[in-house]
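Changelog note: in this version the structure field was regenerated for every chain. One regenerated record is shown below for reference.
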Amino acid sequence: MKIVKDSSAAKAQCTPDELKALNAFAKAQLKEEEVYTFSVLLCDNEVDRDNERFSVPTLRELGELFVGATGICDHDWRSENQVARIYRTELVTEKDRTTSCGEPYVYLKGYAYMLRTEANAELIAQIDGGIKRETSIGCSVAKSICSICGAEMGQCTHVKGESYGGKMCCAVLTGAVDAYEWSFVAVPAQRSAGVIKNFVESDAGKRYAAEYSELEKSAQLGKKYMSELKMEVLRLCLVCNEELYPAMEKSVEHMQEPELRQMKEALTQQSQKLYPPLTQLPGRGEVTRFSGDEYII
């Protein structure tokens, strides 16, 4: 699963220790006046507007993968578009700030450098002037986990953004696989910034294509079953008490499969009491007087 997530950049000081760290990536030993350093807020554990978030262990894994990652512009993967490189990362915890999930706010901070060349002068001026602040990352994660039940998203009935027992459902991005790059972008970074995701086909992906196809079919059948179960509950509600239908129509959308089955069973029993089956013929040994008007053939 490929992830592109908005973040931000800011100027940083080039101390002797920082210079030593970045020189590990340079063939020639660079001097302080030859480099420009700045920090980048790469990603965090806050729920974004797509109702997804990185887990703290995943942020830590990404921290290792992003060391040495190239900085480009607008996610354009051309060699001439390389402008900077991350030489170290740091996982920062703000103890006085909590996420919407009630956890301490944690973010991955990257330290990057670029050469003070004529070609980079304009970009450096834009960073200093606060024009170039927004960045985004390109990375890959192994799984997207449901925060409610712990199953992989798509394999359970929970929906991102919906509330279950007072707890909002979100997808927890786990298992960092790769860190492709980070990029300067034009879209302003915001709190709970947007995430764009798509599956990246690889050799491993091809091996599991058939299995994924079967899982997709099973998921579609599950969705069809849930839809029919909700319709049946609403039908029985109309049979038993038409006045409750408007409230029930909204409620069933948030019910899980066990709750829907229980509701269906209860409404079925109630409908049988309200409308018991009637027979045209009397029981054995009984005599019934009738004129024949009761029966129509």
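Spot check on this record: The first helix runs from residue 16 to 22. Residues 7 and 42 are 5 Å apart (CA to CA).
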